[in-house]
Task: structure prediction
Amino acid sequence: MTNLLRKPFGTHGKVHEITPVNADWRYVGFSLYRLRAGERAAEATGDREVILVMVEGKAAMIAAGQDWGTLGERMNVFERTPPHCLYVPNGEAWETVAETDCTIAVCSAPGRSGHKARRIGPDGITLTERGKGANTRYINNIAMENEDYCDSLLVTEVFTPAGHWSSYPSHRHDEDDYPRITYLEETYFHRISPGNGFGIQRVYTDNLQLNETMAVYDGDVVLVPRGHHPCGAPYGFEMYYLNVMAGPLRKWRFVPDPAVEWILKRDA
Result:
């Protein structure tokens, strides 16, 4: 079975690199850079489109032959302010120079040359409340299906208050049967505040052939190849995650776990 919990392999430079090959799937890629002021990073996109997300800090960006100036504003992701992001299509390249210590996420999926490079956010990204009671969380949608920025990528940020649940009621998107459900692979990049805390994520199928429950720590990534995937933030610790999804169709349609479907109907 694929290892669903990925720990950072360093504290500096590129610290995550999840590819379709090492994830044993077809679509989603996720990398993360932690750079010190003055350091550089650069990549070619190849056959994949990319959204660069300034998780924290500021950096100068050049991509697709254009100078995009300085991206980034929030210095701590838990400020919950809208992120600065950059879309780079397949067949291009990008380069960045950190102006402060910064964290840059590289979200990728197959590209079809259908869109041009562009800035995404902070304008147009509004923190939105979702859920009720202890299921309340807050969303920064970066590139979901109603934003026509991408060929394949779906990207969003979620802030889960301490003591709350998120990606809940449990749901799955692991069949290619639109409009009932879509097949979307997914990664969760987790941050925890305070940083010495932890959260919980479960990934399970209806038949429990996949049934993993993981303690996630600040900086971890969880892979969701199939099944339901709820998260919990223990009392005292706030949880952030950056979601990357992609599949054969750029639509997000899911089916709830039958055990919790009544919650969706009650809260509708």
Notes: DSSP finds two helices and 25 strands in the chain. The chain has a mean pLDDT of 96. Residues 5-267 form a domain with the Jelly Rolls fold (CATH 2.60.120.10). Residues 186 and 245 are 4 Å apart (CA to CA).
